[in-house]
Design a protein that fits this description.
Structural class: alpha/beta
Mean pLDDT: 85
CATH architecture of one domain: Beta Barrel
Largest sheet: 5 strands, mixed, barrel
Strand content: 15-25%
Strand order of the largest sheet: 6-10-11-13-12
Bound molecules: adenosine-5'-diphosphate, magnesium ion
CATH topology of one domain: OB fold (Dihydrolipoamide Acetyltransferase, E2P)
Shape: globular
Radius of gyration: 32 Å
Distance between the termini: 79 Å
Low-confidence stretches: 556-563
Length: about 700
């Protein structure tokens, strides 16, 4: 290929003897169970810069030579005939984002960092196909490349002119193969850029190492793959990486490089007694109001502490928040802001723009060339970050059932076709949803108006209801806020063509300018999450305990014990931890506990109050019905039972009339009947007439 090749197998042999004798001896013992010799690029460079450069620029020849050299090593009968050299640790200059790969990198050795979005099953692939000539019976191998079986054109037997052959899979040589699609990691992207992807082809012992959602550094040779069909070849090509080595990053990427000055600045900032207010004030300043929601979001950004207990259990530290609200009140806007601010944020819609949706799916499509492919959804891609999911109520049924596990255990299990996998989804969920009927009815329980099962709702640490009702004072402040932001925006745009308006900007900018610049805040958050692990003070524990016990007791007044579960208690702990982290404190104080109680109370008041009695009733959240509702449902069932006690059916009219005597109006009866039918408790043999299901 390239004539300037300097390396020879001998040169590689010297290198291997000098630097990797020990590793090779170990490999010889384990071969062929282990098949790879892992080589650090810097060692090659240290040995001989020319050899190293050639490895980068002509990897095909260079690696072939190295492979020949490796065959020289023996241990008794054993030699490393089919072993591979896996090069890791390429220099920075050769590490690329997917978007920066260009045609000049074709057939060169490059490193690419990314997140695994899709992975196929590992399946055998023919590398050397055995054929038999139908005319003379001669058998011979044909080396394979590409996706289609390459057949011989003529018989290898000189004396034979046979043109038809039989493929003999049994005698052919196979290797394991897997295809991945990797995507740029969210933290590498700025301001709403769409992540780009590249496909990776892996063979032999590299296949089956990674799962969707893993963060990897892949070293490979950049190849081109034709587009279009065999018949109509396009002149445009796709890029693909032929894998030479993979490293899985258990640790986070070197995300957000932080200098000594940055850290100094962060520590300085934390000393400010008003730091909490400053942080909350820096979240979406262009959005008016919602101080409690912004505070909750701030806490979510800092997150509680994930814990691995000695008995093997894992407790999440991530705080899940749900915003339910009327349309047009800046839910989506808030979510987008969080995506930009979070050190590792993803914004997506429950309506699912990708086939993988929120959790994960297994599909059999073109990508896998007939193999099953496992694709990671948003919650897997947001691992160790925040997933802002808009229109969460519109997610499909499959996601909905997988979400329980994803939120609590922070894993997503897939068992479909040949694929069995458990993917990690250690992220905080910030969901937004519209009320089921478009707008909130303030007289019905919130849980009933959210298109989500109660069991799922109870997994949110905080739920906020955003209602849009006319209020002259609020509306006036809101409108001047929005108008001023737009005015400031206009001035900023105008000043680009007319610098003279710049002076008008003074003062106007203040209301939309975050107190802490977003870049610094991102670093502050990342620093805190990485280094701050606070511990609860005694008084704080006492206070939280008292509140929790009180919460449970409140429901008891009415007679029925309510399942305020340990989930609420865990939510309290997480929020308190996040609160301490916000000011980089090692201690969770009474102040943190107080703030926690305040915010949890506000959230519970909004969603768990029985609108009829004004009482706190967590059943609304966990069961989806308040006690009064449950009573009503029971009354209706009893009525139907009574009316049909002698056989026949109960007409809606009769049920309604009976129910009125118990103070249940017609609309309610209709609603209850509809629900009972949905739940399969009753059925309607003829229109408007009901019978209990037995
Ligand atoms: P939603 O997702 O709740 O339906 P959007 O986030 O799309 O609503 O908001 C609609 C528009 O109204 C956005 O441009 C948003 O900036 C604006 N808006 C609504 N409420 C506010 C507010 N409180 N402060 C500033 N802008 C607001
Ligand atoms: Mg919206």
């Amino acid at each position: 290929m390239v004539s300037t090749i300097v390396s020879s197998p001998t040169r590689w042999l010297h290198f291997l003897e000098e630097y990797y004798q020990k590793e090779i001896d170990e490999l010889l013992v384990e071969y062929p169970k282990k098949k790879s010799l892992w080589i650090r690029y810097c060692d090659v460079e240290f040995f001989d810069t020319e050899l190293a450069e050639e490895l980068l620029d002509s990897p095909d020849d260079s690696l072939e030579n190295a492979k020949q050299a490796l065959k020289e090593f023996h241990y008794g009968e054993i030699s490393l005939d089919d072993a591979h050299l896996r090069i890791v640790g390429l220099p920075k200059l050769r590490s690329f984002m997917v978007r920066d790969l260009r045609s000049e990198h074709i057939n060169k050795l490059v490193a690419v960092e990314g997140l695994v979005r899709k992975a196929t099953e590992v399946r055998p692939k023919v590398t050397k196909a055995l054929f038999r000539c139908t005319k003379c019976g001669h058998e011979f191998f044909v080396e394979q490349e590409g996706n289609e079986l390459k057949e011989p054109e003529k018989c290898r037997n000189e004396e034979c002119d046979g043109k038809r052959f039989i493929f003999l899979p049994k005698g052919s040589k196979f290797t394991n193969a897997q295809k991945l699609r990797i995507q740029e990691a969210p933290e590498e992207l700025r301001g709403g850029e769409q992540p780009q992807t590249i496909d990776v082809e892996l063979e032999d012992d590299l296949a089956g190492i990674v799962n969707p959602g893993d963060r990897i550094v892949i070293v490979g040779i950049l190849r081109i793959r034709p587009r279009g069909s065999q018949q109509r070849r396009s002149i445009f090509y796709d890029l693909a990486l032929e894998g030479v080595s993979i490293e899985v990053r258990e640790q986070e990427f070197e995300e957000l490089e932080m200098s000594e000055e940055d850290i100094q600045q962060i520590k300085e900032l934390a000393k400010n007694p008003d730091i909490d207010k400053m942080i909350v004030g820096s979240i979406a300043p262009s959005i008016y109001g919602y101080d409690d929601i912004k505070e909750a979001i701030a806490l979510q950004l800092f997150s509680g502490i994930p814990k691995h207990l000695p008995d093997g259990t894992y407790i999440r530290g991530d705080i899940h928040i749900l915003l339910v609200g009327d349309p047009g009140i800046a839910k989506s806007q808030l979510l987008r802001y969080v995506k930009q601010l979070a050190p590792r944020g993803i914004y997506t819609s429950g309506k699912s723009t990708t086939s993988a949706g929120l959790t994960a799916t297994a599909v059999k499509d073109e990508f896998g060339d007939g193999r099953w492919t496992l694709e990671a959804g948003a919650l897997v891609m947001a691992d160790k970050g925040i997933a802002a999911v808009d229109e969460l109520d519109k997610m499909d049924a499959e996601d909905r059932s997988a979400l329980h596990e994803a939120m609590e255990q922070q894993t997503i299990s897939v068992a479909k076709a040949g694929i069995l996998a458990t993917l990690k989804s250690r992220c905080a969920l910030l969901g937004a949803a519209n009320p089921k009927f478009g707008r909130f009815d303030p007289y019905s329980p919130v849980a009933e108006q959210i298109n989500m099962p109660p069991a799922l709702l109870s997994r949110f640490d905080l739920i906020f209801v955003m209602q849009d009702y006319p209020d002259v004072e609020k509306d006036s402040k809101l409108s001047s806020h929005i108008l001023t932001s737009h005015y400031a925006g206009e001035l900023i745009e105008r000043s680009k063509i007319d610098p003279s308006v710049r002076e008008n900007l003074e003062g106007v900018l203040d209301i939309i300018k975050p107190e802490i610049p977003p870049e610094l805040l991102r670093k502050y958050i990342a620093y805190s999450r990485r280094t701050i692990f606070p511990v609860m003070e005694k008084e704080a524990i006492e206070l939280l305990k008292e509140f929790y016990v009180g919460l449970r007791a409140e429901g008891r007044d009415e007679g029925a014990p309510i399942p305020v579960t340990a989930r609420q208690l865990e939510a309290l702990v997480r929020i308190a931890e996040a609160s301490a982290r916000m000011r980089l404190s090692d201690k969770i104080t009474v102040e943190d506990a107080r703030r926690t109680i305040k915010i949890v109370e506000r959230s519970l008041n909004q969603v768990a109050k029985d609108p009829e009695t004004g009482r706190l009733d967590v059943d609304i959240l966990t069961v989806g019905q308040s006690k009064t509702q449950r009573d009503r449902v029971k009354i209706v069932i009893d009525i139907i039972k009574e009316l049909t006690s002698e056989g026949g059916m109960a007409s809606e009219k009769d049920i309604s009339a009976e129910a009125q005597k118990h103070g249940i109006d017609e609309d309610r009866v209709k609603e209850i009947l509809r629900k009972l039918r949905e739940e399969g408790m009753i059925y309607m043999p003829t229109y408007g007439n009901y019978r209990l299901a037995t």
